[in-house]
């Protein structure tokens, strides 16, 4: 895992000098693709919009914009993550991002 932290981009959500969550992404199997590796929000701060904000920040990052493909793996039993991605309409956003201006 240490090599991912040296190569990947990690964005943090914090408040009052406490980390509330993070998103980690980096290069995937091909040079023109990115992989969302981890999205974590502390359980006490879930359902506060932090996961959505982290995902929007990741998708707006220049490395993600340069990628022709972005992959996300979600465990079938991870209902919270699936709800988050579906609520963000992530699949449509990634597919149509060439028509969406960066925030």
Q: If you had to describe this structure to a student in words, what would you say it looks like?
A:
- It contains five helices and four strands, in the order αβββααβαα.
- By secondary structure, the chain is an alpha+beta fold.
- The protein has one domain: Gcn5-related N-acetyltransferase (GNAT) (Aminopeptidase, 3-Layer(aba) Sandwich), CATH 3.40.630.
Put the structure in a nutshell.
The chain is α+β, with helices and mostly antiparallel strands.
Question: What tags apply to this protein structure?
Answer:
disordered C terminus; alpha+beta; 103 residues; 5 helices; Aminopeptidase; 36% helix; four-stranded mixed β-sheet
Shape field: globular
Task: Please give the order of strands in the largest beta sheet.
Answer: 1-2-3-4
Order of helices and strands: HEEEHHEHH
The CATH topology turns out to be Aminopeptidase
How many strands, what sense, and barrel or not for the largest sheet? 4 strands, mixed
CATH classification class = Alpha Beta
The CATH homologous superfamily is termed Gcn5-related N-acetyltransferase (GNAT)
The percentage of residues in β strands lies in 25-35%
Give the class from helix and strand content and strand pairing: alpha+beta
**Global mean pLDDT:** 81
Topology:
Blueprint: H1 2-7, E1 9-15, E2 18-27, E3 33-41, H2 50-60, H3 62-66, E4 69-72, H4 79-87, H5 90-95
């Amino acid at each position: 895992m240490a090599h991912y932290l040296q190569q990947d981009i990690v964005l943090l959500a914090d408040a009052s000098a406490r980390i509330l969550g993070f998103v980690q992404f980096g290069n995937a199997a091909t040079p023109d693709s990115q992989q969302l590796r981890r999205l974590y929000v502390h359980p006490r701060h879930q359902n506060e919009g932090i996961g959505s904000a982290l995902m929007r920040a990741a998708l707006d990052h220049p490395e993600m914009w340069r990628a022709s493909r972005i992959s996300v793996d979600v465990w079938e039993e991870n209902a919270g993550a699936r709800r988050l991605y579906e609520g963000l309409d992530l699949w449509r956003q990634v597919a149509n991002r060439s028509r969406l201006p960066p925030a």
